[in-house]
Amino acid sequence: MHTIKNYINGEWIDAHEGEFQTLFNPSNGETIGEIPLCDFNQSRQATYAAAQAFQTWSKLPLPKRMGFIFKMHQAMVDNHEMLAESIAVDQAKHISEARGEVQRVIEILQMACTIPALIQGETITGIANNISGRVVRAPLGVFCGVAPFNFPALVFGWFIPFAIATGNTFVYKPSSDSPIFMQKMMQLIHESGLPAGVVNIVHGNRTVVESWYDDDNVVGLCLVGSTPTAKAMAEGCGRSGKKAMLLGGAKNSLVAMEDAPMDLLIENILISGYGSAGQRCLASSNIIAVSEVYDEIVERLIEASQGVTVGDAMNPNVFMGPVINAAAKERIEGYIQTGIDEGANLALDGRNPSLPKKISNGFYVGPTVFTDVKSEMTIAEEEIFGPVVSVMKVGCINGALRVVNKQKMGNGACIFTQNSYYTEKFINDADVGMVGVNVGICAPHPYMPFGGVKDSLIGNNKVQGKDAIDFFTQNKTATIRVVDPEGGQGPASKDTSVRSCVAS
User: Fold this and answer.
1) Which fold, 2-248+456-477?
2) What are the beta bridge partners of residue 170?
């Protein structure tokens, strides 16, 4: 059993009263803990602690702030396996993928260690007689963030290191379905000596988030979640004038041209479509094949999908673990039935996969393949967030782009080809935020921004890279006159360029 606590103002807080949510291990359906659901007052206690900490943290010399980022990085390196196992238990991401997630966050922290070079300001001299201008990047205050269940480590890496390294403080709400990673990570951060209130952890439901909208201590909100949730948060932030960095849902396509490297293509469809049981924002759920290779792809994909092993996320001999909970399993199976009802061909049914008795109560959906799918079908338009792939036939690159671009969400899209014309046309014309060429998951390196367009990104800033620096800082401009203490500077009234600066 795991004891889940809030972390406020440098202390672990026991929830002796109030509501709780049961925490399950999706691999076997067993109860493994309870999550406290914070009320309004507890949420405000966390933001107040962060606001008080901001007064001193924002003034701490940059090298000292960065010292804690270096410690955070080393703590993750030293505890890599422990952190990966925490993800594999409550999120049920296969242990090999959980290790990969932790490694990616280590790389994000390496990028965050370059922040001092990215927050340098600008200076312009000679604006007027003895006057210069200066732009500095300054922190803003308290930010709050909400994480989804599917990447508990990655989203921590996207939000917290960038926020605190630039001088802000943070209140973080992990998903109630996968809180264990953040409990472990926060303990490591606590042991590093991070000052109280700089990072706070609260658990709960929408009550916590809604309390932030009119909280004067909060300057901005961050989210990785569904598009409806992102739009609701954007509305709340808009009413109160808060910054918002909100990543929404996705419906990603993988395009296969006639010259696609077939072995690499099939391998990547399996990794992208079934990795994390299809529960990731860059899963390629729509496979768009030109007619020349459609039949071969269908045949090979079904055969390869039948060989995908399903089981306990901690079992190194299986490929894919369960989905997050019973509700997700029911929702995914509902989409499968919808696909059948709308006329798609269910070539491989992942419902009720064969499982060992000891995990038969887990939340499993096996690899599922639909063929003869039309772009207007529900399974081709909506985010299923499960191991379900839909194969569609098109005539050419233009037909493929029409299917990609009609999507309301524009997170990512990949193309498999050896033709440079197809490559460049796809990069230029695909209306998505992230493009992959001969890769099934088009996640950019941490040095580059991560995020989509259209309904996949509500707001302007993406995560990672310089986008994150821009979001967590503000430009502060200073106009500076240097005055000779001996009185050598003439009267300002004689300098017309100064008067025009002041008048404007």
Assistant:
1) Aldehyde Dehydrogenase; Chain A, domain 1 (3.40.605)
2) 143, 199
